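Researcher: Before we compare anything, I want clean individual predictions. No alignment, no superposition, just each chain on its own. First chain goes here; please echo the sequence and then give the structure tokens.
Model: Echoing the first chain and its structure:
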Amino acid sequence: MKKINFVICLVSLVTLSLLSPAMAEGIRPGSFTLSGIIGGYTFDGRQHIETRPVYGVRGGYNFTKHWGVEGLFDYARTESTRADQDINFYRYGGEVLLHVFPDNKLVPYLAAGYVGLTRDPEGQHTVSKGAFDYGIGAKYFLTDDLALRADFRNMVFREGANVQRPGEYHDEGTGFNYEYTIGLAWQFGGKGPEPAVMAAPEPPLLQVVPTPPVQEEAPPAPVPAAEPTPGRYKYCISLNLQFDIDKALIRAEDHREIARVGEFMQRYPDTTAVIEGHTDNVGTDEHNLDLSRRRAESVTNYLVDKFGIDRSRLSSTGYGFKHPVADNGTEAGKQKNRRIDAIIDCAFDVTKISPPERLCMSLLMEFETGRAEIQPRYHDEIAKVAEYMKRYPTTTALIEGHTDNTGTADFNQKLSQERAENVVNYLVEKLGIERSRLSAKGYGASRRLAYNTTAEGRKKNRRINAIFDCVVEK
């Protein structure tokens, strides 16, 4: 009997070890579970009952990520090995579950509880007894709500303790039954951990690298204005404005330049914009930050006063000389760095407008966890990039890959690079875009948009961006 027990446990553990422990939301505190299972049930040899398939249902509740309870009911149709007699068998009761690594995609657990075992032989009295059960199991989450499960249980009872006739008692010692099953588990309700509320740092251009999922994450750094919202675009216009030294007043000769933004936002009334102020490196950090902010606010006020743009559609920020676009070592470079950028968030058919200096598009596409293959349902999304590049054949594009913080930093870096390269290859091989016009860059989890502590946050961080540099021949 001990050998049988050992072999069954070994087979179960090997099966579970073949499942990849990639990160997912895992067990949610406060969630309910509902499962359907199928497998086999083996009886103690002294019971003289055939091994047969077993079917069952489970219903449970997770008090925390680690601790949960589960009620169960199983049924098997079997027969005696000594006589031509069919037997209906039922198992019912409850168990306590201890989840190990509850935040992973593969969640092993230990189980222990107390169950009732009922045999109902045809033409004889029904026999029922209690049994302690214990075992192991694992859930492999296909999504945040649906998981495959595999279980092994050992039932321990006193054989013969309840099998008696009036005046007779037969105790044949300790008996063992074994159940081994697979099934589907549905998790619903509950809530993932809320990110801690913390003050945001001074806005940098690069995002903060997230900490491992088992630790508290710092708040995401402010998203650069040029980072597109999924399904929308960032239409980036650099304004060539000349301000007097250390002044923020707009010159009359620059009114036509600002009109490029005002007229665009009038034409597309559902757009919003961030007006960014930038300077060269002459002066102190504090002075340039204040000066760039005042100049951005002057442009914002002009758009409100002269073009009637609602102030709620505009915001302004100053970066000083943090984000140069040219070398501050030359006068020409300094002049390029003294600029105002209008970063317009919009949703429209980009193939029907004149291209800006820079256009950023976030593609609405997802990848399977840990994989880089492009799923067929996202081919139309990639086609938007090709359509735009074919309409404007002088444009080039950088395809950026981003991941959540599942796995190691090296793994995420390679995965994001591979995903970006697969998009580039599809544009070249399937849609006819010249490879010389495309490049791929993977950023791993280094530029997150949201917390990785929730499924929604991780989904936002897994993204592909297409960054167009638009050089249009006049």
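Researcher: Okay. Second chain, same rules.
Model: Second chain and its structure:
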Amino acid sequence: MKINEFVPDSKIFQKIGTSSNDNSENKETESVGFGEFLKGKLDEVNAQQIKSEDTTESFIKGDETNIHKVMLDTEEAKMSLELAVQIRNKFVEAYQELNRTQL
């Protein structure tokens, strides 16, 4: 039985030899706190809700908006909101579990 040799692609290791400027950019992105990250994601959910509302209003007004775009925007906003609610529920559940633990 012959075992094939693994030859890694050189593109995988390109980030290893990058300059120090790229490293400082990575440090800036890593310094974002959990609260800021969560706020950013909630802002994205809010933006999707607003986009859905705007496309629905433009369709109702009779603008040149495709019904498929309205449905896609609405479903995307609905799914992102449902995901945000599920994540919130998991956080609340984890918080309650931590409060129940005895020291």
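Researcher: What stands out in the second chain?
Model: The mean pLDDT is 82. Additionally, Helices lie at 20-30, 34-61, 67-100.
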